[in-house]
């Protein structure tokens, strides 16, 4: 993984916030974060949309503000 600079992180946080404003209220979306690409195909961190199973996910873009978007599925429960 490449080490992004502070300008990249600012861009990634802005992209995360933009995507969150669009889809975070959807019942399938548990959270959105910035992290390692679950596909392993990006040298830079990606926006990761964590989805709940059994709920039709929203339409998601491939990227936001130049930052790649990936999805992960999991059974997210309060602990």
Question: Short description, anyone?
Answer:
With 79 residues, this protein is an alpha+beta fold.
Number of helices: 1
Describe the global form.
Answer: globular
**Secondary structure: helix percent:** 10-25%
Low-confidence stretches: none
Number of domains: 1
- H/E element order: HEEEE
Query: Main sheet, how many strands, which sense, barrel?
Result: 4 strands, mixed
What is the SS-derived class?
Answer: alpha+beta
Number of strands: 4
Strand order of the largest sheet: 1-2-4-3
Set down the secondary structure blueprint:
Layout: H1 6-23, E1 29-35, E2 46-51, E3 63-64, E4 67-73
Parallel strand pairs: 2-4
Antiparallel strand pairs: 1-2, 3-4
Report on this model:
The chain is an alpha+beta fold and 79 residues long. It is built from 1 helix and 4 strands, in the order H-E-E-E-E. It has one domain (6-73). The chain has one helix spanning 6-23; strands at 29-35, 46-51, 63-64, 67-73. A 4-stranded mixed sheet has the order 1-2-4-3. It starts with 5 loop residues before the first helix and ends in a 6-residue tail after the last strand. The model has no long low-confidence stretch (mean pLDDT 93).
